[in-house]
Amino acid sequence: MAELALGVVSLTFQVVSLVNSVIDTFDSIQNAPQELRDFRQGVVRLQRHFEFLGADVSGVPDLGFLHVEDATAIEETLTLCKDLLQQQVNRQEGMVTKVVRGVWTLRNSQKLVKYKNQINDHYTQIILPSWLRWIR
């Protein structure tokens, strides 16, 4: 489970880095599509929570309260997000125009909303059990 937990945390940080790279192509976060900004907010919230969990456990979040199936579902969602964002980052190596950004947004806005909702669901699966465990 420890390896899976580290994989989930690592993927979360990678996805945050990639979404920031994609947002950078829009020159500022205010110019980025709302779906991309909302997606970023959900992933950053998940990242902050992992950082909080890791603060007391020598930097490694204790995700022992998660079932393997839940951790695997989170990992799968983050992997899909990473792949989607990595494709855009790879395309950015040339000149990025407003048309390219617009096409990418149209093609991927529904995926971003879907992944954001999945991340929010995962966040709820993580945050509630961790707080309950911490309160005891």
Which tags fit this structure?
elongated; mainly alpha; 79% helix; 136 residues
Explain this structure.
With 136 residues, the protein is mainly alpha-helical. It is 79% helix and 0% strand. It has four helices and no strands. The chain is elongated and about 55 Å long. The two termini are 22 Å apart. The model has no long low-confidence stretch (mean pLDDT 79).
Give the N-to-C terminal Cα separation. 22 Å
Largest sheet: none
Q: What share of residues is helical?
A: over 70%
The radius of gyration over CA amounts to 16 Å
Order of helices and strands: HHHH
Overall morphology: elongated
Q: Which class of secondary structure composition applies to the elements? A: mainly alpha
Helix segment tally? 4
Total count of strands: 0
Q: Stretches where pLDDT falls below 50 for ≥5 residues?
A: none
Put the structure in a nutshell.
The chain has 136 residues and is mostly helical. It has four helices and no strands.
Produce the secondary structure layout:
Blueprint: H1 2-24, H2 34-55, H3 68-91, H4 98-135
